[in-house]
Automatic annotation (TrEMBL):
InterPro entries attached to this UniProt entry: PsdUridine_synth_cat_dom_sf, PsdUridine_synth_RluC/D, PsdUridine_synth_RsuA/RluA, RluA_PseudoU_synthase, S4_RNA-bd, S4_RNA-bd_sf
Origin superkingdom: Bacteria
Organism: Candidatus Gallacutalibacter pullicola
GO MF assignments: RNA binding; rRNA pseudouridine synthase activity
Lineage, broadest ranks: Bacteria, Bacillati, Bacillota, Clostridia, Eubacteriales
Catalytic activity: a uridine in RNA = a pseudouridine in RNA; uridine(955/2504/2580) in 23S rRNA = pseudouridine(955/2504/2580) in 23S rRNA
Domain called RNA-binding S4: residue spans: 13-72
PROSITE patterns linked to this entry: S4
UniProt entry keywords in alphabetical sequence: Isomerase, RNA-binding, rRNA processing
Protein's recorded name: Pseudouridine synthase
C-alpha cells in the first residue's frame, strides 16, 4: 500500500485527474476499476472518480508498484538559462516580458530553452519551486504568445493562481493591448475590423474571409493609429491593437487581409515589402496588460485595476529614426 497526502497545490483536483498526472503508468481503465473496487480510498473511505481533493486528504493506494512508478527526478528545466525580464513578481504570480525568438513551451525542435523552463529554473534557484515535494503541480504559464512575437506573459507560482487566472482569461476579464508597425497608411484613424478566421493546422497559418464557413470562427480586432511615417517613400503606420477575440495569428492575418501586413512578417506579408525595413521578426508586441476583474478573484483580488506595461519594445527605436529622417534600414 502507498499513501499520498494532498498538498495545497493538489487541492481542488478531481481524484482521477490527480492520479493520472501523478502516476502516468496507471492505465485509466485500471484507475476507474480500482476506485470501484475500493483499492483506492480517500481518508480510509470509498471515493468517487469526481471527488474533489482537499488539502490534507490522504489517498490510500492498494496497487502494484509497477503502476505507481513515477518519472525519474531529472529536471530538464535546469538546462535552460534562468534569465528573465520580470515586470512584476509576488508570491503568486509573475508578469514577464518575453523577447521575440524565445518559445513559450517546448516544441518538436526543443533544445531545453523555453520561457516555462526559464521560469521553473528561476523559481527552483530561489527555492520557491521544489519539485521533489510536489505531487502534480509545476509553475505554469497562464497565457502564451508566438515565438517571434514579444511581450507580456503571465506565470502562476501555485495551483490556486493558475485556476483563478485560467478562469479570468476564459471570461475575458483581462485587457491585453498590442503595438505593431504595419505597411501603408491606414484608411481610418481607428476602426473595429470584423471577419472570419479559419485555421490550417498543416500549414500553421490562418485564413481570413468576410463570410463564415463551417470551420471558421468570428474575429474582431480594434486598432488605433498612433503615428505614421514614410522613410524613402515606404509608408508605415504604428498601431495600438485591442484583441476583442483571441485567435491564432489574429492580428497578423486580420491586418494583412485588409492590405496592411505587419512589417517583418514573412508569413502574412511579402519578402519584397519587408526588405526595406530589414526587421528580423514581425513588428508586434503585447505591451500592456490590465486586470479588469468583474467577478471575485480570491487570493488575487489585489491585482484588480492594476496595469503593467513593457517598456523596451525593439521596433520603436527604428520607427523613431524613420520619423526623424534617419537610416531606413536595420540591415
Amino acid at each position: 500500500m502507498k499513501t499520498v497526502t494532498i498538498l495545497a497545490n493538489d487541492a481542488g483536483q478531481r481524484v482521477d485527474k490527480f492520479l493520472t498526472k501523478t502516476y502516468p503508468n496507471l492505465p485509466q481503465s485500471m484507475l476507474y476499476k480500482c476506485i470501484r473496487k475500493k483499492d483506492i480510498k480517500l481518508n480510509g473511505k470509498r471515493c468517487e472518480i469526481s471527488t474533489r481533493l482537499q488539502e490534507g486528504d490522504v489517498l490510500s493506494l492498494y496497487l502494484k508498484d509497477e503502476f505507481l512508478q513515477q518519472s525519474p527526478k531529472e529536471y530538464d528545466f535546469l538546462k535552460a538559462p534562468d534569465k528573465l525580464a520580470i515586470l512584476y513578481e509576488d508570491e503568486n504570480i509573475m508578469i514577464l516580458d518575453k523577447k521575440p525568438g524565445l518559445i513559450v513551451h517546448p516544441d518538436e525542435n526543443y533544445h531545453f530553452d523555453s520561457l516555462i523552463a526559464r521560469v521553473q529554473h528561476y523559481l527552483y534557484k530561489k527555492g520557491e519551486y521544489r519539485p521533489e515535494e510536489e505531487n502534480s503541480f509545476a509553475p505554469a504559464l497562464i497565457n502564451r504568445i508566438d515565438r517571434n512575437t514579444g511581450g507580456i506573459v503571465m506565470a502562476a507560482k501555485n495551483a490556486e493562481t493558475l485556476r483563478i487566472m485560467n478562469d479570468k482569461v476564459r471570461e475575458r476579464e483581462l485587457k491585453k493591448l498590442y503595438l505593431c508597425i504595419v505597411h501603408g497608411r491606414m484608411e481610418k484613424p481607428q476602426d473595429t475590423l470584423e471577419g472570419y478566421l479559419e485555421k490550417n493546422e498543416s500549414q500553421n497559418r490562418v485564413y481570413i474571409s468576410k463570410r463564415p464557413s463551417a470551420d471558421s470562427k468570428t474575429i474582431r480586432t480594434r486598432y488605433r493609429v498612433l503615428d505614421s511615417c514614410a522613410p524613402q517613400g515606404h509608408t508605415y503606420s504604428l498601431l495600438e491593437v485591442d484583441l476583442l477575440t483571441g485567435r491564432t495569428h489574429q492580428i497578423r492575418a486580420h491586418l494583412a487581409s485588409i492590405g496592411h501586413p505587419l512589417a517583418g512578417d514573412g508569413k502574412y506579408g511579402t519578402n519584397a515589402a519587408n526588405k526595406h525595413c530589414g526587421f528580423p521578426y514581425q513588428a508586434l508586441y503585447s505591451y500592456k496588460l490590465k486586470f479588469e476583474f468583474s467577478t471575485p478573484a480570491g487570493l488575487l483580488e489585489y491585482l484588480n485595476g492594476r496595469t503593467f506595461e513593457a517598456r523596451q519594445i525593439w521596433f520603436l527605436e527604428q520607427f523613431a529614426r524613420w520619423k526623424n529622417g534617419g537610416d531606413s534600414s536595420r540591415s
